Automatic annotation (TrEMBL):
<comment type="subunit">
    <text>Monomer.</text>
</comment>
<dbReference type="Pfam" id="PF01494">
    <property type="entry name" value="FAD_binding_3"/>
</dbReference>
<keyword id="KW-0285">Flavoprotein</keyword>
<keyword id="KW-0547">Nucleotide-binding</keyword>
<protein>
    <recommendedName>
        <fullName>Flavin-dependent monooxygenase</fullName>
        <ecNumber>1.14.13.-</ecNumber>
    </recommendedName>
</protein>
<dbReference type="InterPro" id="IPR036188">
    <property type="entry name" value="FAD/NAD-bd_sf"/>
</dbReference>
<dbReference type="InterPro" id="IPR002938">
    <property type="entry name" value="FAD-bd"/>
</dbReference>
<keyword id="KW-0521">NADP</keyword>
<feature type="binding site">
    <location>
        <position position="106"/>
    </location>
    <ligand>
        <name>FAD</name>
    </ligand>
</feature>
<dbReference type="InterPro" id="IPR043683">
    <property type="entry name" value="TetX_monooxygenase"/>
</dbReference>
<keyword id="KW-0963">Cytoplasm</keyword>
<feature type="binding site">
    <location>
        <position position="48"/>
    </location>
    <ligand>
        <name>FAD</name>
    </ligand>
</feature>
<feature type="binding site">
    <location>
        <position position="301"/>
    </location>
    <ligand>
        <name>FAD</name>
    </ligand>
</feature>
<keyword id="KW-0560">Oxidoreductase</keyword>
<comment type="function">
    <text>An FAD-requiring monooxygenase active on some tetracycline antibiotic derivatives, which leads to their inactivation. Hydroxylates carbon 11a of tetracycline and some analogs.</text>
</comment>
<feature type="binding site">
    <location>
        <position position="41"/>
    </location>
    <ligand>
        <name>NADPH</name>
    </ligand>
</feature>
<keyword id="KW-0503">Monooxygenase</keyword>
Amino acid sequence: MNSPRIAVIGAGVGGLACARGLQVHGRSVTVFEREGSAFARWQGGMLDLHAPTGQAALRSVGLFDEFRAVARPEAQELRAVDPVTLALVHHEQPGEDEYFAPEIDRGQLRELLLGSLADGTVHWGHPVDGVTAQEDGTARVRFGDGTTEVFDLVVGADGAWSRTRPVLSAATPSYTGTTLVETFLDDVDTRHPALADLIGRGSLVAGVGARMLGAQRNSGGHVRVYAELEGVPLDWHEAAGLDLADTEAVRAHLLTRFEGWHEGLLDLLRRSDGGFANRSIHVLPTGHSWGHVPGVTLLGDAAHLLPPHGIGANLALIDGADLATAVATHDVLDDAVRAFEKVMLTRAKAAGEADAEMMAMMDDEKTRDIGAARQFMNDRMLGAEPA
């Protein structure tokens, strides 16, 4: 039997995990990515890969040892502090060999996955405009240059604003009312030692009401800083008369919003080494699903977009690995996709419900409730023994 023609749309971690899994099982696959190269843009902060999802996916596609070689278990540390006094109100300190949810830079994980693929698997600079289901159970991909190509299966791994999703669902992401304003610190240990001590080896968070400040260590002394604003309009910066490209004006505005907070926390904003990026948080409805359409499916954020609480990348990885395994273990391609969708949609619904419950626990006093909220999420979503 000829190998099915499979296209993965999007070279994020979920799409690449799917492609890697398919190749491990001897299946052909082509990944189409709109960006011009693997290094066209910065890939984001660090990811904590959970034992039953992200780590299980890397085991499935044969990359777990490579992951362990670069992952940082010490970065599982979480420090929550009072925003006014800087008193430590919650502290999660990993044990010597605790490997339940170690951190890895998203860029490192993506490079690991890309390096595992056969040469030429990813076609860079190939934006997709849309996908059409065909009567014979195949799907036609329409590229940005006007050309088209037919595949036996098209996997939409193209994120929140997926161009694949409309063939299956009319759902579109909705704004949650929460925005993250992101900046960064470089060489924090040598250039900002006081902030390095405050942040610790992993993540720092402080919050009250509708405001939160957080910092997240990446590799190489790089720290991402996040100012969270809740209950603000999508165009909050325009309403405030701000040009996001005006770094000093945005900095001054944020310092005003966090007025009265401890100077040590405000230094995360004062001493940042870069500009400020606006990250508005969008989600798909909890339990988003679709009627099965032969020849097309979705995974990751294209299927179940959640807030950035450490769940999404793990789900994308296990989605990709599960779909590859299903294709390899079913004689009929459409049966494989149906089996995958049943498992994936059930898991995504449970994750969305758990995330919503966790956020309800944190609504009033983030720092006061963060320990209980984290334990709740561990019990609901991380219910497996450490690797």
